[in-house]
Amino acid sequence: MGLILNPPSPAFGVLLVNLGTPDEPTPKAVRRFLKQFLSDPRVVDLSPWLWQPLLNGVILNTRPAKVAKLYQSIWTDEGSPLMVISVRQAQKLAVDLSATFNQTIPVELGMSYGNPSIEAGFERLKAQGAERIVVLPLYPQYSCSTVASVFDAVASYVKTVRDIPQLRFNKQYFDHEAYIAALAHSVKRHWKTYGQADKLLLSFHGIPLRYVNEGDPYRDQCLTTAKLLAQKLELNESQWQVCFQSRFGREEWLTPYADELLTKLPSQGVKSVDVICPAFATDCLETLEEISIGGKETFLHAGGESYRFIPCLNDDELHIELLRLLVQEQVQSWD
Predict the structure, then answer these.
(1) CA distance 245 to 305
(2) Which of 2, 98, 126, 153 is least buried, going by the fewest C-beta atoms within 10 A?
(3) CA angle, residues 311, 328, 100, in degrees to nearest 5
(4) Is the dihedral of CA 278, 284, 289, 293 positive or negative?
(5) Which of 37, 36, 322 is nearest to 181 (CA)?
(6) What's the CA gap between 268 and 242, in Å, rounded?
(7) Taking the chain, what is the end-to-end CA distance rounded to the nearest angstrom?
(8) Residue 289 CA to chain centroid, in angstroms?
(9) What are the start-end ranges of the E strands in the chain?
(10) Pairing assessment for the beta strands 306-310 and 107-111 based on DSSP bridges
């Protein structure tokens, strides 16, 4: 009887991180998700003495039922679109990396909020023998409200273990050549099928203007992404425009606001628009419901004639290639 050898440890593992999603499209599950999300001081940095009573006394008693209905409108038989697509992204990236490095490279998911958690992702990689880990937040543009929150979670995990892994952390990729190429390919493919609209809207997730004034580079990175994409598509200034979506609360956020812009454009002679959301690596509630459904209703009600949503990069081949390149750039200094 021969010896049973332990399989060799992988050269490294990858933790793909996204925002997260409720486990179910129910008020109870949404409430649990929103409580964790809106309790993160990176997301809402108000004094907890002011914010927590408002959050627990008002918001979490009124919003979950409304938000649950929105999730129900996009939920699939397989589950939450963000989770379903994220799983496919991880699976395809693992195949691509394993072929590139000629050995099995484990890729796991970790969500900033909800399941699976970032801690659980680390533990699964550890169980597979990964002692070196690349953390890849799926946020092209850096913001303290997204990428920094991931870093906080990574730091919290590291505090709990005796033997910490070697880490590489990808902060941003807003101007990466492969990212811009993947976006451009997505737009051109859309135009080939449906034709080109009067204007291409690039709708980025908003953040409070105060964050930018205090040093967050997010707005500048969004504008850089937009300009590089417009150049790649050879668009003139009248053919594209940036806007920001998903504002929350009464504080001023980045402008122009997507919903207000969609209301104004028809009166300015823009009767058809294509809308892409470059800040999102994966289609989710904010793209599938807020932009694809809600944005269309707003634009057509204001007198627009044609509104088309361009899906996120999701598990597109060029997107997976971009993620592989980002990982390769992070591990190139490792033996």
Answers:
(1) 21
(2) 2
(3) 90
(4) positive
(5) 322
(6) 16
(7) 35
(8) 15
(9) 13-18, 107-111, 132-137, 166-169, 199-205, 240-245, 272-276, 306-310
(10) unpaired
Tell the residue number behind the tokens 């730091």, with chain if given. 155
Q: Return the axis-axis angle of helices 317-331 and 81-101, rounded to nearest 10°.
A: 60
What type of residue is 295? Answer: G
- Degrees to nearest 5, angle at CA 136 with 256 and 23: 75
Q: What is the pLDDT of residues 33-76, one digit of tens each?
A: 999 999 999 999 999 999 999 999 999 999 999 999 999 999 99
Question: Angle of helix 317-331 relative to helix 177-194, nearest 10 degrees?
Answer: 180
List pLDDT tens digits, range 237-270: 999 999 999 998 889 999 999 999 999 999 999 9
Residue 291 contacts residue 245 (beta carbons within 8 Å): yes
* Tokens, residue 134: 């690349």
CA separation for the pair 308, 192 (Å, rounded): 13
Neighbouring-strand partners of residue 244 = 204, 257
Element (H, E) at 149: helix 147-158
Number of Cα atoms under 13 Å in the Cβ half of residue 133? 27
pTM of the model: 0.94
CB 74 within 8 A of CB 81: yes
3-state DSSP helix/strand/coil % of the chain, to nearest 5:
50, 15, 35
Residue type, 218: Y
Contact 165, 119 (CB under 8 A): no
Biggest CA–CA distance in the chain, Å, is: 81
What does the pLDDT look like over 263-300, one tens digit per residue? 999 999 999 999 999 999 999 999 999 999 999 999 99
The CB-based long-range contact list for 160-165 (8 Å cut-off, 24+ gap) reads 160/119, 165/122, 165/125, 165/126, 165/130, 165/131, 165/132, 165/133
At residue 156, what is the residue type?
S
State how far the Cα of 242 lies from the Cα of 306, in Å rounded to an integer: 18
**Contact residues for 206 (Cβ-Cβ < 8 A; gap 6+):** 244, 245, 246, 247, 253, 254, 257
